[in-house]
Amino acid sequence: MNRLSILLRIIAIIAASAACILFFISKGKLAEEVLARKAADKASREIQVELTEADNQIEDLNSRLKSEQEVLSDTKRKLESTRSEMYTARQEVSRTQQQLSIAKNDIERLEESAKRLRSDLLQSEQSLASASNDIEIENLNLRIAELNKSNAKLEESLQNVVSKNNSTSQDSEQAVSSNSLSELYSTPSDTAKPVSVFGPETEILSMKNGFIVLSNNANLGLVAGAKANMIQKKRAIGSIQVVKTDNEMILANILPGSNTSAINAGGTITILP
Hints:
Number of strands: 6
Distance between the termini: 194 Å
Structural class: alpha+beta
Strand content: 15-25%
CATH topology of the domain at 198-273: Elongation Factor Tu (Ef-tu), domain 3
Order of helices and strands: HHEEEEEE
Number of helices: 2
CATH architecture of the domain at 198-273: Beta Barrel
Oligomer: single chain
Helix content: 55-70%
């Protein structure tokens, strides 16, 4: 019995020591497990942070990818529009080349027709030159005839004026012989302005492009539409037709057949209606 009790005690002691050893071993393992769990929690938190950062990066990459896709789609559209524009431009270039070839052919035909027209023009100019000489001679003959007629009319009017002046001078001499000496030496109240034998004189202000501007005065008596002859140095130099008058000037048209070389600005002419 004693041996049994001793064995039991020994077994109890061994069990107690084994339990103590197991307790201390389990306690150390538990601490290790706690540390390991803490490390695992820390690692999980770090992994979670890394996952969130990775998610953010993925979202950024997705947004960039969308923007790149949009840019790519815009580039594709621009490329397609550029291709269509290039195609239309090629068609326009081909049409322009065709038009240029047609225009070149037209230019060649026009040059040939121009050559023919030049030769025809030279021939017509030669024929006109020969015909214009005859026409100019006929015009000169007509002008000479008109000047002769006007000179004849002026000579008749000159003779009439001279005869009238002679008659008036005779009448004045008879009146003077009948009056007394006091009446002869008396001063008249009004002095008459000298007038040319043919008619009133006026000054040429200007002459240009077939028109003449004369100085107007009361003795001329010209109105718009009236025709008159011009006399210079007792010779007819032509005729005019009045266009417009005012208190100072007369604008008239120089009629054909007039000697314009004898009309100079600043000179004087006699107007005979």
